[in-house]
Amino acid sequence: MAGEGCIFCRIARGEAPAQIIWEDEQTMAFLDIAPVARGHTLVIPRRHYRDLMSVPDEELAAVMATAKRVARALMEGLGATGVNVLHASGVAAGQSVFHFHLHLIPRREGDGLDPWPEEGYQGREREREQEDDPEEVCKRIRVALALQGPKRYLN
Ligand SMILES: [Zn+2]
After folding, report:
1. What is the dihedral of CA 71, 76, 82, 88, to 10 degrees?
2. What's the confidence (pLDDT) of residue 141?
3. Which of 56, 57, 105, 114 could form a disulfide with 84 if both were Cys (CB 3.0 to 4.6 A apart)?
4. If you ran DSSP here, which 8-state letter would residue 119 be given?
């Protein structure tokens, strides 16, 4: 069975505890157990998908609709004045639970969180060594998109 042993599947099935904020047929939202800010929330599809590239469009839209609803509640309920939506697909990106999820991080002026360091990636030597021409970068991404065709799921 997909997602066997997956902690988020266990939460979705009610087999593992979580501070659940929202649930509907397709999605759930619950507090992160290691919050970086008060109200740090995860939004997941109930069904198990490994990463962004695996989630069917319709379920992804449902996850985003829940993210929007919960983000508004973080602003209104917790007095946040901003929200970051963060996501990691793949180990290199920092993904640690391999059930697709979005992080909603309530933000407040002067809270000290810094998801985008000012130096940018060009300040890091390893990235600089690689080809960095924006036109070439765009071309490679467009070719990969064209090869996918108009609609293609990887699951
Ligand atoms: Zn899962």
Report:
1. -20
2. 78
3. 105
4. T
Torsion of CA 138, 141, 51, 72, to 10 degrees: 40
Closest CA to 29 of 46, 42, 14: 42
Tell me, which fold does domain 7-110 have in CATH? HIT family, subunit A (3.30.428)
The two beta strands, 41-45 and 102-107, are antiparallel
Residue type, 74: L
**Domain-wise residue ranges, the chain:** 7-110
pTM assigned to the model:
0.85
22 alpha carbon to ligand 1 midpoint, in Å?
A: 17
- How far away, in angstroms, is 7 Cα from ligand 1 center? 6
How many CB atoms lie under 10 A from the CB of residue 97?
12
Residue 28, CA distances (Å) to 25, 57, 59 in order: 8, 17, 12
Distance 119 CA to ligand 1 centre (A): 35
Q: What tens digit of pLDDT does each residue of 94-133 get?
A: 999 999 999 999 999 999 998 777 766 555 655 554 556 8
CA distances from 115 to 31, 40, 120, 140 (A): 19, 14, 11, 26
